[in-house]
Amino acid sequence: MDNIDLFAMRERFNSQQIMLCFNGPISRSLIEEIGNALRNYLAADHAHPSAAMDVFAVYIEMTQNISHYTRSKGWNEQEAGATVVVSRWEGALDRNRLKLALDGRESELPPPVDALPEALPAKG
Fold first, then answer.
1. Alpha helices in the chain (DSSP H)
2. Please, what's the largest Cα pairwise distance for the chain?
3. Other CB atoms closer than 10 Å to residue 63's CB: what's the count?
4. Which residues does residue 25 pair with via DSSP β-bridges, in sequence order?
5. pLDDT tens-digit profile of 56-106?
6. Any idea what the Cα angle at residue 23 is, between residues 1 and 20, rounded to 5°?
7. Measured distance CA(76)–CA(96) in Å, rounded
8. Which backbone phi and psi does 62 adopt, to 5 degrees?
9. What are the angstrom distances between the C-alpha of 71 and each of 62, 75, 100?
10. pTM of the model
């Protein structure tokens, strides 16, 4: 196994504004503890209450999706590994921006979009 450069990892997380990252087996109790840590981080960072609620709501939805998926596969907690990353970015986040950032290609990131696109009208 290669040596892990924790300082370089921390620098990369800081440059990508990653607030929280977890990789490994995930359980309901761990989801709750990570949620508490995220809530505490946002409070300590003096995040605007509505922004903090948005971030927390996305975290809850993401982890519920992981939980539902692993249950649908019949996996136990040890088999239910996941990677959860919460990052602070201005503007909209799309799949391409995320892929570039996770690949360490920050220099190729396009400028952030100023606002999310308008919601699509409901199908009638």
1. 6-15, 28-44, 49-72, 95-102
2. 56
3. 20
4. 81
5. 888 888 888 888 888 888 888 777 788 888 887 655 555 666 666 666 676
6. 120
7. 32
8. -60, -45
9. 14, 6, 30
10. 0.60
